[in-house]
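From the methods appendix. Each design record in this collection lists the tokenized structure first, followed by the designed amino acid sequence. Records were kept in a plain field format so they could be parsed without special tools. The example shown here is representative of the layout used throughout.

RECORD:
FOLD TOKENS (233 positions):
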């Protein structure tokens, strides 16, 4: 029996890398997608059966060729983790049209384009898992989060529509709301006085994401919140 294939879109030294390592450890072949080709190739060398593909989610005209290449070189995709996320953190006076559009392109249009390419492969298998990494901003628009929050709200609504349409086909769509600061060298440097247990651990996030992809179809989760036990909400 061939190994199942997981694609992680938006791989970096945090959640994306943790997802890739988790699925590799459980026997998946993993396709790593991100803009930084050097980083991708370095990580791919550490993970058995993994391959890296340079891909910017805003360059949607490249989506078809990339996902066809993945199917040919890695295998038919059964798991998609969409971890790409970016956005301008600004209020209406500070935000730019370019920043607003870029946030939407990364979080909503990029997801739409990727799902369009992955679905035919999942339908060949008659099952699939699509996990979308969201944010608290998808639920409420902070005054200084206008571009990011509006894009994440669009992403969450897109995820709901996908889940309702695809569930009868055996394709499970789930949306993970990250509520808190993710632990990384960069965030610890930016917040040197913040206690370490006030950060979300990427490995622990990966455990939950993997769990979602293994749920029996009689009890699927659509939306799930993750936050450190000390987070105020």
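DESIGN:
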């Amino acid at each position: 029996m061939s190994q199942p294939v997981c694609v992680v879109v938006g791989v970096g030294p945090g959640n994306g890398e943790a997802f890739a390592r988790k699925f590799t450890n459980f026997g998946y072949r993993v396709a790593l997608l991100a803009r930084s080709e050097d980083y991708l190739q370095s990580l791919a060398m550490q993970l058995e059966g993994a391959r890296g593909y340079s891909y910017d989610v805003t360059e949607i005209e490249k989506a078809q060729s990339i996902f066809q290449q993945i199917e040919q070189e890695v295998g038919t995709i059964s798991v998609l983790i969409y971890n790409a996320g970016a956005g301008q953190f600004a209020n209406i006076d500070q935000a730019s049209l370019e920043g607003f559009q870029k946030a939407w392109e990364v979080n909503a249009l990029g997801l739409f384009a990727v799902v369009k390419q992955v679905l035919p492969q999942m339908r060949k298998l008659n099952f699939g898992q699509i996990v979308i990494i969201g944010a608290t901003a998808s639920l409420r628009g902070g005054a200084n989060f206008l571009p990011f929050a509006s894009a994440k709200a669009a992403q969450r609504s897109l995820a709901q529509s996908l889940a309702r349409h695809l569930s009868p086909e055996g394709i499970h769509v789930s949306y993970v709301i990250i509520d808190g600061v993710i632990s990384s060298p960069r965030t610890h440097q930016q917040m040197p006085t913040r206690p370490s247990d006030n950060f979300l651990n990427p490995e622990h996030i990966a455990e939950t994401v993997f769990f979602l992809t293994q749920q029996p179809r009689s009890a699927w989760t659509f939306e799930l919140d993750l936050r450190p036990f000390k987070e105020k909400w």
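APPENDIX NOTE: The chain has one domain: 5-226.
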